[in-house]
Amino acid sequence: MEIQPTLVNGEINDWEAAENIYKHALHTRLQAATSQHPLLLVEQAFLPSEQRAKMCELMFEKFEVPAFFLSKDAVLSAFAAGRATGLVVDVGAGLSRVSPVHDGYILKKGITKNTLAGEAVSKWMYRCITEKGINVRPHYTIEKKETKPGSGEGVTITDRQLPHVTESYKKWMLYDVVRDIKESLCHISEVRFVADNYEGTPAKLYELPDGAMVELAVDRFKIPEALLNPAFGDDEVLAAAQSQEAGKAIGLVQMVNESVSKCDPDLRRDLFSNTILTGGGSLFDGLEVRLGNELQESLPSKVKVNASGVNAERRFSAWIGGSILGSLGTFHQLWISKAEYDEEGAHLIEKRCP
Q1: CA distances from 203 to 199, 218, 219 (A)
Q2: Element (H, E) at 9
Q3: What is the spatial distance between Cα 254 and Cα 112, in angstroms, rounded to a whole number?
Q4: What is the pLDDT of residues 278-302, one digit of tens each?
């Protein structure tokens, strides 16, 4: 089995795989007759026009939907938080993005992004663990684990023999363990991290699939600190933190300031006071408070960071916002109908879904 990403930096790089995923989701899982239901899809705010048009064509031609609409993920995350105006800070798996939203429309000039997100932090954690001499084994490599009482030999492992495992599958399963370590042990300091202040911090333990123990003390604060201050990482972390918009490596707080600085001065107070934290990579304990504290230091106006306490709501905020948008009584006016698509073609998406 080969595991390859369908999305790279937010853009679809394998349309055949994407089509199969949509088929599985719509036909197999939802068992929906797509020819009978309008379809609302979520998109990244910076998706190229060619990909947007291809998505429109795919849905009308292959899935035969009667109506279609594309909506920006940041706008929907704002709707999920009950706001039409706000600054959406989205820390996902492959991308961290800050997107200003005003009256339900995204301000593209203010979008700031980099690839220092959940996966980059997981890779940084893996490098830190392996430097300690710890070997992380995926679950699938272990057939049986047993401890013989009184033997004094610890845990006995029986290996599972799988002859045709691909490197991509092995890597995926390896990082599945690393992600769980990260989510179980890591915490972001509510003030700027200084290693000396954490000397003597009690370590937390994590048992690996083979029974070995990972012990993290200072590192459980230092590793996720890279999200806010990439200088705490290595060269790969600094490379991931490079932002094309800023022209340098920047952390999350700098991304927020960079984004707001590109917006009209009259909007900045409203954006800062409605900062919305979302995405699976934002679930580190302490991130919401730390982000608010650091932004408040440099601003005269009050900063409020809104983040749902329910993990699922933060991970799927765009989906929740889409359900809110789709349930509005006036939303039917926004749909692109099949008749309109047949008349004007896929380029209509640029006019109707700005």
Answers
A1: 10, 8, 9
A2: none
A3: 10
A4: 999 999 999 999 998 888 887 766 7
The residues, ordered by sequence, that sit 6+ positions from 54 with a Cβ below 8 Å of its Cβ are 15, 346
C-alpha 51/C-alpha 62 separation (Å) is 16
Place of tokens 């309008």: 38
**What Rg do the C-alpha atoms of the chain give, in angstroms?**
23
Locate tokens 């060269």: which residue? 235
Q: Which token pair is 126?
A: 């893996």
3-class SS string, 323-349: HHHHHCCCHHHCCEEHHHHHHHCCCHH
Task: For residue 201, report the phi and psi dihedrals to the nearest 5 degrees.
Answer: -65, 130
Q: How far apart are CA 314 and CA 131, in angstroms?
A: 33
Q: Which residues pair with 111 in a beta bridge?
A: none
pLDDT in tens, 117-159: 999 999 999 999 999 999 999 998 888 877 766 554 567 778 8
Element (H, E) at 84: none
Task: Please tell me the distance from the alpha carbon of residue 328 to that of residue 342, in angstroms, as a whole number.
Answer: 26
Q: What is the pLDDT of residues 179-223, one digit of tens each?
A: 999 999 999 998 888 888 888 889 999 999 988 899 999 999 999
